[in-house]
Amino acid sequence: MTRRRWGQRSGLVAGVLLWAGAASGQVVPALPPGQPPRAVTVPPAEPIGDSIYPHLGQKGLDVLHYDVTLYIDQPGTRGLRGVAVLTLTGTRPLNVVSVDLLGPTVQDVRWNGQPAVWQQDVAAAKLRVTLPAPLPAGQRAQLTVTYAGPAGTLVDPELGLDLGWVPVQDAAGRPVSSYTLSEPDGTRTFLPVNDHPSDPATFTVHVTVPPGVVVAASGVGGAAREVAGGREFTFEQRQPIPTYALAVQVGPLERVDGPAVPATGPEGGPVQRRDYFPPDTSDAVRAPYAQVGEMLRVLSGWFGPFPFPVYGAAVITPRVPALETATLLTMPVSSSSERVIVHEGAHQWFGDTVVLGDWADVWLNEGFATYAELLWLESRGDDPGRIAATWYDRLRAQPTRPLVATTEPQLFDASAYLRGALALHALRAAVGDAAFRTFLRGYVQDHSRRPVRTADLLASAQRTLGPVARTVLGVWVESPTLPPLPAWHRLP
Ligand code: TRP
Ligand code: ZN
C-alpha cells in the first residue's frame, strides 16, 4: 500500500461506498434525496502494474479522450462538480472498467449513454463499472461519470506538498484560487482517470466559474462564453498527454498573449504564446517569460519541433516546485527563473510527449530536462564542462544509485536529475554534437506518445549511434557507483 494519505470526505461515506447508478439518471448536482442506494459489488480489475505505484490504472484500458466539464462555484475551496466523458477502448477484451478517483463522490455512471452497474470503492480509490457485455479489444465505448466534490486530498510524502486540486487562500483565510499539481497521481483528486503516464490521452476541458474568475488550462483556446451564473471557458488539448500533465487553474488571473514563435512548432509551424499571472505580479517575476521564444528556438534545435501549437506558463503564488504541465507550465513565483522555465520546457518533449512506461524510469524525464538547462546556459555563452563538473561535485557528496529507481523516495532525487543529465553529457562527449543531436531527435520521434522504459533509450542509442554509445550510456545507467566524469572537449 501507499504511504499517501487522504482526508476529509463528505460525511456521507466511510469505508466502501456502494451505489448502483442504474436507478438514478440524475445529472449534476446530486441524487434525489431519499432515493435508496442499491448495493452492488464490481470485482477489482488488474492494475497496470507500475513498479512504484502498483495500485494505479487498469491493465489493458486505453483511454483515448477525456471530455471534462467542471463547475467551480467557489475558487479557493475543494468544492467542485463535474461530468467526465471518457472515450476508451481496450488493448484486450474488458469485462470491467476501473478508473482512479480519490475524493469526489460519484452520482451517476453511464455506459454508452445507458445507466451502468457501478461501485465507488472509496478505500481503493477506484470507480468500477461492470460492462453489460464484454468490450472487444479495439472497440470504442463511452463512459460518462457525474460526480461532486470535495476534491481529494493527497500529500506527496517526499516533497511534503499538496497534490491534485489545490485551493489557495489569502492571508485572512479567504478563498482565492485553485490550481492542479498532479505528478505523479493527483489528477484523480478531481477527475476519474486511468492515472498512469503509460496511457496518455487528449482532453477537452470546460470549466464554469463565477463572474470575474478566469480559467487557464492545458491546450488551445481559452475563450469564455456567458452562461447562467458566470462564464464557461473551453480548452482543447489535441495531442495526447499523461494525466498528471493536465493543468487547470481558476482564479483572478491576467492572461497575456505574446507574439507567436515562428517555425518551432509541430510540422514547422508557429507556437502560439500565452501566459497567465496572478494580480500584482511584479515585472521581475514576469521578465524571464520574455525569453520563452528564444528557449523554444534553442531547445527545438536539439530535440526537434516543439510538440504543441501553444505554450506558456500559469504562475501561482505558493512556494512549491514547478511542474511541467503540458502547454501551460505551473510556475510558482518563487521558481520563475530562466533555468527552471527551460527545465520545464524540455519536459514538454521528455515526459509530456515521450511518456513514461513506469515511474521507475522517471530519470528519463528528469535527466533530459536537467540536461536542457546546460544546453540553454551553453547557448548563452556558459561552459558546458564547468556546468557538468558542478553537477558531478554535488553528486560525489552523496550516495548514488543506478538510474532505474526501486523506491518512491528515489524518484526525484539527485541521481534522477544530475546523474541522469550526466549520462546524457557522457554520451554527447563520446559521440559529438552532430550525432548527439541526431540521436535526440530520433529518440523523440520514435517514442512520441509511446511509453518508454530505460531499455528503450539504450536500444535507441545502440541503433542510432552504435554499440560503443550503448556501452557509455549503459555504464551511467547501471553502475552502482558514480562513473568518472568524462573530459569535455566539444566534438563537432
Ligand atoms: N517534475 C517536476 C520537475 O522536476 C518535479 C516534481 C515532482 C513535482 N513531483 C512534483 C513538482 C509534484 C510539483 C509537484 O520539474
Ligand atoms: Zn523536472
From TrEMBL:
Its cellular-component GO annotations read: cytoplasm; extracellular space; membrane
Q: Which Pfam families match?
A: Peptidase_M1, Peptidase_M1_N
Give GO BP annotations, semicolon-separated. peptide catabolic process; proteolysis
Please give the superkingdom of this protein's source: Bacteria
**Can you give the residue ranges of the Peptidase M1 membrane alanine aminopeptidase domain?**
334-465
Asked whether the UniProt record includes Zinc among its keywords, one would answer: yes
Q: Which cofactor does it need?
A: Zn(2+)
Q: Where is the signal peptide?
A: 1-25
Q: What's the catalysed reaction?
A: Release of an N-terminal amino acid, Xaa-|-Yaa- from a peptide, amide or arylamide. Xaa is preferably Ala, but may be most amino acids including Pro (slow action). When a terminal hydrophobic residue is followed by a prolyl residue, the two may be released as an intact Xaa-Pro dipeptide
Q: Which residues form the Aminopeptidase N-like N-terminal domain?
A: 65-244
Keyword list (alphabetical) reads:
Aminopeptidase, Hydrolase, Metal-binding, Metalloprotease, Protease, Signal, Zinc
EC annotation? 3.4.11.2
* GO MF annotations in UniProt: alanyl aminopeptidase activity; metalloaminopeptidase activity; peptide binding; zinc ion binding
Cited PANTHER family:
PROTEASE M1 ZINC METALLOPROTEASE (PTHR11533), PUROMYCIN-SENSITIVE AMINOPEPTIDASE-RELATED (PTHR11533:SF174)
Q: Which family does it belong to?
A: Belongs to the peptidase M1 family.
Protein name (database record): Aminopeptidase N
